Amino acid sequence: MSLLRLGPAAEYIGGTVAALLATWPADPSARTDDEWSALRAALPEGTGSATIRSRTRQITGYLGVYGRPPADLCELEGPPAVARQVSLAAADRQQVAVDRVDDRIVRVWSQLPMCAAPVSYRDWVWHAFDVVLPAIVPAGVKVCTPTLRPGDGKVRVDLPWQTPHTPPRLDGHTRALGVDWGVNTLLTATVADLDPDGTVVVQGRPLRFDATGVSAKLVRLRRHREHLNTKVDHVIRLRDGRPAHTPAEQALTAKLVLLKAEHSAVCARIRHLNKALAWSAARWLVDQATAVGATVIYVEDLATLEGRGGSRSLNRRISGAVRGTVFTAIAHLAAKEGAAVVTVPARGTSSGCPRCGGAVKHVKTPQRSVAGYRWATCSCGLSMDRDHAAAQRIAARGLANQAKTRRGRNGNAAIRTATDTPVRHRTRRPTPAATIPPLRDRRKTVPTPKQTRPATVKTSRLLPLRRQVPAPADSPSRSAGQRPAGRTPQDTNPQGPVSQVPHTIPTTAPRHPHRVRGAALGRGFHRHVHATPVTNRDGSTSRTSGLPRIA
Length: 551
Prior knowledge:
Elements (H helix, E strand, L loop, with lengths): L7 H15 L10 H10 L6 H18 L6 H4 L9 E2 L8 E5 L4 E9 L10 E9 L9 E2 L3 E5 L2 E5 L2 E2 L12 E7 L5 E8 L5 E3 L4 E4 L1 H29 L6 H46 L3 E6 L10 H7 L3 H16 L2 E6 L15 E3 L11 E3 L5 E3 H15 L5 E2 L5 E2 L8 E3 L104 E2 L20
Parallel strand pairs: 9-13, 11-20, 13-14, 14-19
Antiparallel strand pairs: 1-6, 2-3, 3-4, 5-8, 6-7, 9-10, 10-11, 10-12, 12-21, 15-16, 16-17, 18-19
């Protein structure tokens, strides 16, 4: 099969594999300078080091299994797994037609054969079915040929539509949004401006999309999935060792069906949560860029970043598939707003100082100068959050190298090689003197005035104290005196509905519900996603702008 018929991506990968096989060295882990020169000359233009290393490991693994090198990409890669689908876009207008009935209904006509071996046009009959469009599809767009995906007793329709779109410009930007991927915080962004003299000025306010709670949930779901997978393998081994058609074998088969169903449900839950998290983060980031008037979003390219060992959990968190979905969602939503999305090289964004360009020291906190991850300090006086410093460096790297922006084969804009430029922080405006409250005169030159106290006593927000509740008027007088302080006796068999026993709630101290700092639980995409509110350029904040939502 020709690689040209598979598309430009397969052609590019096939050229990379062919170049590696043509210049395969004696020791692929330690190439000489001449071997590297020959390989670079044979590789396609724009091939990165990460692609070379990953394909080299793939070919090495093939050699270890089969004892010979593969012939080409088709032999190196296994057969693709394609889901059940009917791509009507592969047919021409003589077999498929799409008509727009009204704003909400689309009628699809398809000519299908009436027998197994049609020989004339009389063996073909036109069939029609209506598709109800969702509310997100605009009324005046052009609807394209759909793709049908049968499964679970239903037929799902992938119906694309086209809207006129002008690609945003890649250079000439004066305000940008620099975004850094984080391990604990998913996205950290900052606003940067390009002055006429070429200086990059950044704002000191970081923008964060903290999804630590959702990440912890995903980790728990992955552990549960692996535990179920282990149990499935164990039950399969037990079932295979039992005689067929016995009660023990049938019981194990029934248990295996339940475990596989639960495993599929957990996998679906992980996929849905990843997708919701990715689109919510992308929607938040594009809203921030629109609110501050940024015309470009610079994101570091993690395709060139590799896990160097050290920690398997760190490598797994860095290489999460959710980041690819986030980038795709950002590019899709930013195109609607007319903003460009450009990737910049990721090397050195967290290890360099955005002010002077020197090496930074990563510590735990500003007060604890021991080795850590969260905080970055430099000899020039820099002391800020590590992700915030990296976002400033990414924004400066993108604004200073706008002329080097190019579009790749897939249409994504990227800066392949970039030079760093120092950033300058915007000076804060002086606070007006009228807003500064006067200092309290604490000199003892006059007698201390008496303080007026409120007549009422501060009580609990839930239930008042027992001694503050007035006795009912019809209560009989007690000759034995006042009952000592303590819990109020309760009736063991109360008459009528009782919502809650009063003495189960402390009446002496107020109860404060658990609130994560700076969070509004129960609102937005997820109750444990904490994002910086979207503030408009005039300083106003809408009622729902700070809520993480799904696009």
